[in-house]
Design a protein that fits this description.
about 40% strand; two-stranded antiparallel sheet; about 230 residues; mRNA Triphosphatase Cet1, Chain A; eight-stranded antiparallel barrel; about 30% helix; alpha+beta
Length: about 230
């Protein structure tokens, strides 16, 4: 499915508890493959620095349920600098598309310091879009989002199922490589976010494995949850 030039995928999100996670994990382990990028069997650490404008448009558009919206973030894994990605995630109701481009660590710190001219001259369309947002809409770092992710994949239907655990918001820092920054837990009990992404179809047997009809679908946004947590401290 396409929207303009964007190839879309379905995205469904659910809040689940520890018992539901254990049950679903046992089912998925039997038939799906673990993400090959996972550092350990239980998954990997994800840290993202999200950006928003001076009006917090990404946050308020999410809360208002605007049909078409976008977010920019820079993401790393396991606090390493081997993969550093600028990502633009676009949302169209329950569908998503994502554009990515690789950054270097020096480029990340240049962006953090407001030295963004290289984005315009790097020959990358996503870099140019990001530069225009920074200059025209005063896009700036907003919050660090931390969590542990356990992921499963299936080639048929381009399916990706993830459990995001121990969601935390970074406090008083935007340096994603700082392993000493303070973080605030978002949930006071073991709550996880189940995300189901797929292309044209979700295979019936996967749907049945997940028993997704037994859960309440959510508009869970890790960015919005972390922004609210940080704002509550001010």
């Amino acid at each position: 499915m396409r929207y303009g030039d964007n190839l879309l995928r379905h995205e469904l999100k659910y809040f689940i508890n520890l018992h539901e996670y254990t049950h679903l994990k046992r089912r998925l382990d039997a038939v799906l493959e673990k993400d090959r990028h996972a550092a350990v069997n239980d998954g990997y650490h994800v840290r993202s620095l999200y950006f928003d404008d001076i009006y917090n448009s990404a946050l308020y558009e999410k809360k208002s349920g605007i049909f078409e919206r976008k977010k920019y973030r820079i993401r790393i894994y396991n606090l390493a600098d081997t993969v550093i990605r600028l990502e633009k995630k676009s949302k169209y109701d329950k569908y998503i598309s994502k554009k990515t481009a690789d950054l270097t660590k020096d480029w990340f710190y240049a962006i953090l310091q407001g030295d963004c001219q290289f984005l315009l001259n790097a020959g990358c369309s996503l870099f140019r879009e990001f530069y225009i947002e920074i200059r025209n809409n005063l896009l700036k770092p907003a919050v660090i989002v931390d969590y542990e992710r356990e992921a499963y994949t299936l080639g048929a239907g381009n399916v990706r199922i993830t459990f995001d655990k121990d969601l935390r918001a970074g406090i008083n820092s935007f340096d994603i490589f700082d392993d000493t920054i303070a973080t605030k837990a978002i949930f006071d009990k073991p709550v996880m976010i189940l995300e189901i992404k797929y292309g044209a179809f979700l295979p019936t047997y996967v749907h049945n494995l997940l028993q997704i009809c037994s859960h309440n679908i959510s508009a869970a946004s890790k960015y919005a949850l972390c922004m609210e947590a940080v704002n509550s401290l001010k």
